[in-house]
Amino acid sequence: MKLAQLETPCLVLDEAKLERNVARMRARLDRLGVALRPHLKTAKSIDVARRVLRRPDDPITVSTLKEAEYFFGHGVRDILYAVGLTPNKFEHVSALRRRGARLSVILDNIDAADALAAHARKAGDRIPVLIEIDCDGHRSGIAPGERALLEVGRALAEGGCELRGVMTHAGNSYNQDCVEGIKAMAIQERDAVVDSARALRDAGLPCPVVSVGSTPTATFAEDLAGVSEVRAGVYMFCDLVMAGIGVCTLDDIAVSVLGTVVGHQREKGWIIVDAGWMAMSRDRGTMKQKTDQGYGIVCDAQGRPWPELIMTDANQEHGILALRPDARGCLPDLPVGALVRILPNHACATGAQHPAYQVVRGAAQEISAVWPRIGGW
Amino acid sequence: MKLAQLETPCLVLDEAKLERNVARMRARLDRLGVALRPHLKTAKSIDVARRVLRRPDDPITVSTLKEAEYFFGHGVRDILYAVGLTPNKFEHVSALRRRGARLSVILDNIDAADALAAHARKAGDRIPVLIEIDCDGHRSGIAPGERALLEVGRALAEGGCELRGVMTHAGNSYNQDCVEGIKAMAIQERDAVVDSARALRDAGLPCPVVSVGSTPTATFAEDLAGVSEVRAGVYMFCDLVMAGIGVCTLDDIAVSVLGTVVGHQREKGWIIVDAGWMAMSRDRGTMKQKTDQGYGIVCDAQGRPWPELIMTDANQEHGILALRPDARGCLPDLPVGALVRILPNHACATGAQHPAYQVVRGAAQEISAVWPRIGGW
Fold first, then answer.
1. What is the Cα–Cα distance from A273 to A282, expressed in whole angstroms?
2. N or C: which end of chain A has fewer CB within 10 A?
3. From CA A321, how far away is CA B174, in angstroms rounded?
4. pLDDT per residue over A84-100, tens digit each?
5. Which chain B residue shows the shortest CA-CA distance from A143?
6. What is the chain A residue with the closest CA to B355?
């Protein structure tokens, strides 16, 4: 089967680039002497996971209990569910644990800790918990130095849960516009959890796990002393947001959306393709970056980019391709029926729109495999 | 089963509002004396379709061949696939037609017409085709008065396809900021296809179908003389983009995302919920409207909105709820574990993130049914 035989749109994954991205991150973290707990919310595929994990039961991170179910069903056991746990998921967590999953969870406040501890006692399930630390003010978590940390730690440890440690995610690393900014974020991220771990230990509470994670900070961190594990996910595939902040090059981007030219509006310089926002997602993550990539950079069927050709607008099943306003070149000749591959702003969001990966290697047009992926909750 | 027993996030559909929206559009188009060919790209569910269609084999519109397959598999036969057909889908179209689907397609250029006619002759399949007309410059189509119309019409009619007529979609009606603007768009949309139909007929070509469609123009059109059918989809559910341009009220919005409070950042006035952009989609369709609704307006579990409380930012599985900058009221007291329902910017995009509808009626918290929905291509 060749790309040209597929119905479009569909999601293409370049396995050679995936392997290269995976090996690069592994080598980095090995040099830094820290474990990797890859975040599989980007990939949502056991076939990708098998290329990311060294051993089938290596630790992973997930963003939904459906991912936890799925990966556990495929033999992964050590799973961190890295979204603050709500009471309507307590029983599901315990059910997975009774089946043998070494599932751990996170939370960041005393109400959630008390509720989970009450469930743990009732269910007879000493659920392992990491306390979420807020390293950069972008979302959830207890800020380093806040008194709530010890209160939550004690409620968990004394209430019937297993206090495993602390975790944080430097979400603001995505908003940096230079490598120096990301390096500073990596230090801030590390210090936030290392300081919090020290506060717990000083209070006589256990804290074996000190977990950080974001693809930008994992890519540029220089010293992770005191950190026990790194979570990262986007690095496997990379995307235009990552390229825009210097984490990868366009050539590292392993996923693209295959589309077909439907028609033209020649006087406007538009090429219309059958891949719209349903195929790309509505993610416009490069909008606030130095270079706005619209809905994505257009490549030929071999994956070679025309860096001046982007998807400037999208309807549900239509994409409008046009040259950037400042382009110096000409519109490539793409007749009706021509195939293009569009590099996404955000691999997590674009991946979520598709039921499977069509796997290729490099510029080869041959589909070597179709890897299903999951969605929903 | 009650809302409070669900794991969140999930998609809630208020069947009473759906029925009301469906009845209102039917009554409008009956008064205007024009047929309805509902667009099922918003709903992607046979259970919704059954509440929209008067008879099981009423005509429908779809945006993917997967939708065509799915609805045909459930007994719908008269299906318009309303995205310009690419050659890699010709065989799929003919396969569906051989199985008994009365599937028609669209295109807007001579290359596509010649290619489809060649396929039609080879396959012995007189595929019915509508020519797409560009009524407002927003996307695809042949502008009214362009010579290409007759050229394409002849290539189809003489080449082996069945020339069925013309169709257009007033996509720019979504960008109007007042009802008068939408009414003007409805006239422009109608005139574009009625004029094009006349040009085809004057040239001796058949044009039984004259098709228009968008929820805003269908809601405010006052005279559809010469139009044979209206396609619209979002009207079934409504959403904040439609409310922002006066097509519906907040109370008409039939879909919402159910989420649970995970925690707070109290000094910032943030409530964190377990519904992020994966549950809401990345659609920010109200961003350019008079009132930016962020990622959606927050309601209580009964569906009653706090109009000043919106999802101001979203990560993959986290939503940040906060008061609008100009809010006069206070943040409602929403403890950890509290349920909220979030009205979406764009029903098509939010629906696409979910595998099913949890069906309720009005403020009742009881789930009366779970309706699966499809995705992908």
1. 16
2. N
3. 21
4. 999 999 999 999 999 99
5. B265
6. A376
Q: What residue in B sits closest to A349 (Cα-Cα)?
A: B278
Decide if pLDDT at A364 tops 90.
no
Residues of chain B positioned with their CB less than 8 A from the CB of A268 = 137
Q: Report the percentage of chain A scoring pLDDT > 70.
A: 100
Tell which A residues from 316 to 345 touch B, by Cβ distance under 8 Å: 316-318, 320, 335-337
CB contact under 8 A, A86 and B336: yes
So what's the ipTM on this one? Answer: 0.97
Contact (CB<8Å) B375/A352? no
The values of phi and psi at residue A259, to 5°, are -135, 170
Q: Is B348 touching A (CB cutoff 8 A)?
A: yes
| CB A358 within 8 Å of CB A367 | yes
* Neighboring chain B residues of A83 at a CB cutoff of 8 Å: 262, 274, 317-318
Tokens of A51: 């290329």
**Backbone dihedral region for residue A31 (phi beyond 0: left; psi -120 to 50: alpha; all else: beta):** alpha
How far apart CA B138 and CA B141 sit, in angstroms, is 9
**pLDDT band, residue A223 (cuts 50/70/90):** very high
pLDDT of residue B365: 87
Write out chain A residues lying below 8 Å of B274, CB-based.
83-84, 86
**What are the start-end ranges of the H helices in A144-205?**
148-159, 179-202
Name the residue facing A278 among B108, B337, B352 (closest C-beta). Answer: B352
B160: phi > 0 → left, psi -120 to 50 → alpha, else beta; which? Answer: left
Q: Which chain B residues touch A317 with a CB distance below 8 Å?
A: 41, 63-64, 83
CA distance A306 to A309: 5
For residue A365, what pLDDT band results from cuts at 50, 70 and 90? Answer: confident
- Whether B140 and chain A come into contact, CB under 8 Å, resolves to yes
Residues A213-227: b if buried by 16+ CB within 10 A, e if exposed = bbbbbbbbbeebeeb
Banded pLDDT at B364 (limits 50, 70, 90):
confident
At A362 the pLDDT is: 84
pTM equals 0.98
Assess contact for A361 and A368: CB atoms under 8 A.
yes
From the list A281, A337, A355, the residue facing B376 with the nearest CB is A355
| A and B: number of Cβ contacts within 8 A | 169
Q: Cα separation of A48 and A357, whole Å? A: 10
Tell me what pLDDT residue B120 has.
98
Here the tokens at position A349 are 């969001």
Helix H or strand E encompassing A76:
none
State the smallest CA–CA distance between residue A353 and chain B in angstroms.
7
